[in-house]
Amino acid sequence: MLKLFKYLKPYWWQTMLLLGTIALQVWAGLQLPAMMANIINHGIVAGDLNYIWLTGIWMIGFALLASLCAFTANFLSAWLGARFIRDVRHDFFAHVLSLSIAENDQFSTASLITRTMNDIFQTQQAVTMSLSMGVRAPLTCILAIGQAIATAPDMTWIIALAVGVILGLTILIMSIVMPKFQLIQKLADRLTLLTRENLTGLRVIRAFNNEDLAKRKFERANEQNAKLNTFVDAIMSLENPLISLVFNGTTLLCIWIGISLITTNFAYLGNMMAFMQYAIQVVMSFLFLTMLFVVIPRASVSAKRVNEVLETKTKLKWREQTLGKPDLKPSVEFSHVDFAYSGAEEKVLQDISFVAKAGETTAFIGSTGSGKSTLINLVPRFYEATGGEIKVNGISLKDYAECDLMRRIGYVPQRGVLFAGTIKSNILFGAPEASDEQLKLAARVSQSEEFIEKMDKKYDSHIAQGGTNVSGGQRQRLSIARAIAKDPDIYIFDDSFSALDMKTDVKLRRDLKPITKNAVTLIVAQRISTIQDADQIVVLDKGKVVGKGKHLELLDSCKVYREIAKSQLSDQEFNTAMSAAKKEGQHA
């Protein structure tokens, strides 16, 4: 957790002011018992009314000073805590965004959410308490013990006894609950995961009438979490009555021992009263320290989880500036490219080679698990190829600056992803400076214009988080519009037409051609109809290229492509296509 204290460095003078204010508060507060002892010993016993009034006024002054310092310290502590949690969350979120997809895959989405919200909050609480209570309690304890020894040395063993008992209780309680804190955080991850999973898949759960199954899964995790928290809370709840017992026992012991001493020297009454106050201050200090000992171990677990993400280093190394001058004419070239996931023994892609040129459409097809989407994800460097070389516009991916590469790519994922906002803000997500004409062109080409114009506020219509207030096909079309509005060198469509009906699919691809005439178009598709007009079709099977060419060429020469076509086309369509393919082959 100490590693996270670096976030207080920019606020060093506020931190120093806080510590100084706390020290002044403690010093002012500890003057009051000594003054009360003087009033009793020198004022009441001696019958000196003036001394009583003068000392009383000084006591009021010190009490006001202590109160003012307490207010200032509490304000500064809260202010620093707010800045701390803001800065840590900012860096945490920025770091997560900077990691590659491979590094992000090490942590589940639910875990990252829990770490961003709960774990950082736990850490902030510990930092805030450490800045206030962690300074005030030890300082009060040390100074109060010193004052107690100076005031009534015969009774100091009472404080030693009380402190020993409190320390013993604290160690016992911590040894029981400490191992449970990390388990509690893991269960919190599990609950976040189940909540997110069930809310995201609510339609599927209801469609399959599986609400009871979802409830049982959640209830099991929730019950485990409740039992563990109940156990920890039960152990921790013993602390207050035990500390209260020590507190009251210390007070009674002070009175008992003090009265026996007063019988021989009545002037000892003031000392006894002051010693009781100092003893109470010491016990209260250890009580606060005990509370800190509860918070810090739990926060240490949270801090470890936060640091685990912050210390994860991305394996992708980007150039600060792109090396060399990219070709003006866009292109994508794969040269003997291999890829395997971290820790996997088998390669997902093996010896992939092809060239995609400007103005041409290169399509990828193959059975499920053949590596199509993985191949596409290598172009924007979501994953790093483990072998071979990939070039964009004649420059190796490893020689690009990140922003330079990304501005050249318009990416449309399999599942249309929309963000909370408006239709306009989603389409212009990658091109915020685009004009209204570009906005409307993107909507028209993506076949989104028709349903947008039917909405009340048209382009200013609200889009809910995740685009849940529009259909799957509309989400996909708006995602395509977002890529078009960016006007990139390379269009990547990762099975991005799957939610479209055949008529819309045909219209969209027809209107897309003039837009992409100077760009490289890469399409991953499951349907033959989507890619049969492509300039180049790359057929994948088990991570290898088993065919490359145009539609009719592959029907004639590639067995895998022929099987895919046969499974999707009617017998008449397939036979017609095969006849055309044979004629094409004979003509060639």
Q: Would you mind describing this structure in some detail?
A:
Helix 1 runs parallel beside helix 4 (109-151) and helix 5 runs parallel beside helix 9 (268-310). The protein has 20 helices and 12 strands. The radius of gyration is 36 Å and the shape is elongated. By secondary structure, the chain is α/β, with parallel strands linked by helices. The chain has helices at residues 12-44, 49-98, 101-104, 109-151, 156-200, 202-207, 211-237, 239-262, 268-310, 372-378, 402-406, 423-427, 436-445, 449-453, 472-486, 502-515, 528-531, 551-557, 559-568, 571-587, and strands at 331-339, 349-357, 361-366, 387-392, 395-396, 409-412, 421-422, 462-463, 490-494, 520-524, 536-541, 544-549. The model has no long low-confidence stretch (mean pLDDT 81). A hairpin with a 2-residue loop joins strand 4 and strand 5. It has a 6-stranded mixed sheet with strand order 6-9-10-3-11-12, sandwiched between helices. A 4-stranded antiparallel sheet has the order 2-1-4-5, covered by helices on one side. A two-stranded antiparallel sheet has the order 7-8. 64% of the residues lie in helices and 11% in strands.
Mean of the pLDDT scores? Answer: 81
Strand content: 5-15%
Arrangement of strands in the largest sheet: 6-9-10-3-11-12
Radius of gyration, CA atoms, in whole angstroms: 36 Å
Q: Which class best fits the helix and strand makeup?
A: alpha/beta
Number of strands: 12
Termini separation (Å)?
71 Å
Helix content: 55-70%
Low-confidence stretches: none
Tertiary shape:
elongated
Biggest pleated-sheet summary: 6 strands, mixed
Count up the helices: 20
